[in-house]
Amino acid sequence: MINRRKFIERTASFSLLFPITFKNLLGRDFYNKELQPVESEFSKRLKPVGRILEEEDYFVWGCSPVYDESGKVHVFYSRWLKKYGMGGWIHACEIAHAVANSPESDFKHVETIFSPRAGYFDSTTCHNPHIQRVDGKYCLFYIGNTNGKPNTQRIGLATADSLNGTWKRPDKPLLEAGKPGAWDDQCTTNPAFVNNPNGQFWLYYKSFNQEEYEKAAGQSIRGNRKYGLAIAPKVTGPYKKYKNNPVVDFSYLGHNEQLEDAYVWIENGKFKMIARDMGFFNNEYGIIIESDDGIHWGEPQIAWYQASHYINQPPAPHLNHYGRFERPQLLMRNGKPDYLFTATRGGKYNTASGFVFKIEKSE
Question: What distance in Å separates the CA atoms of residue 103 and residue 321, rounded to the nearest whole number?
Answer without folding.
Answer: 26
